[in-house]
Amino acid sequence: MLLLLSCIVRLSAQSKKVFVLVHGAWHGGWCWQQVSAKLREAGNIVYTPSLSGLAEHQYQPHDNIDLNTHINDIVQLITMEDLHDVVLVGHSYGGVVITGVADRIPERLSKLIYLDAVIAENGESALSVQPDTVRKNFIEQAAQYQMRSIPILPAGFFGVSNPKDEKWVNDRLTLQPYKTFAQPLVLQHSFGNHLPLSYIACTNPQIKGLRKFAEKTRQSPSWKYYELETGHDAMITVPKELAAMLMKLSK
Fold it and tell me: What letter does residue 29 receive in the DSSP assignment?
């Protein structure tokens, strides 16, 4: 009987995962509300921090907020909360952030999941990997804010088409600190730091600038590749399906 109870407790512990969900540019922890609710209903532990200068932190001066700031945001969350075996998820720009986190604290992570995310290698930035026209446009727009911030893109750009959801998202998007896009990623180890890598591409509609990252991971034996037939903000458009996929990939 004691052996049976021990096995049940052990299996229960194994089925529960710790998720840290890192949002993309202009967003905040708020965007994961429906997904985090589904994950918690299944007994998982979920953290959805908002990165410096964004969402509820939007009034922090953007002058000194860069990519390293955002990487440190997540590193400090994981270490201060003493989290282990973390399933680390990065959406869009958040993909660059989680790559930096994995480079620093791989021993606290179990898997990296890139959700329709930007893939930047050592020495690259979220800005440098963009198509030329997109990169130039971001730089021109940031000039309006003295190179401190990048103006907000509307919810429709992220594939959110339901009017109610569009309003909800548009009411919450905030300026993106420019240096988070411009600062190159510095890695001391190989990409992913030997952690399992998964990529989820959002394909309907697919953002053209992200297509090359989806193709790169789809063709690489180092990655497990998946698709969701929805727009870029899958956590808004198909939260139930996304939560189910994250739980599947966490096993």
Answer: G
Listed as own residue / partner, the contacts of 37-41 with beta carbons closer than 8 Å and 24 or more positions apart are: 38/239, 38/240, 38/243, 38/244, 39/243, 39/246, 39/247
Whole-angstrom CA distances from 219 to 26, 45, 82, 214, 216 are 30, 32, 36, 9, 6
Active-site hit among 36, 50, 92, 198: 92
DSSP string, 189-250: SSGGGG--EEEEEE-TTPPHHHHHHHHHHHT-TTEEEEEESS-S-HHHHSHHHHHHHHHHHH
Summarised one tens digit per residue, pLDDT across range 223-249 is: 999 999 999 999 999 999 999 999 999
Q: Is 82 exposed, middle or buried (0-12, 13-18, 19+ CB in 10 A)?
A: exposed
- Tell me the pTM: 0.94
222 is catalytic: no
Residue from 241, 232, 230 nearest 118 by CA? 232
pLDDT digits (tens, 9 = 90+) for 82-126: 999 999 999 999 999 999 999 999 999 999 999 999 999 999 999
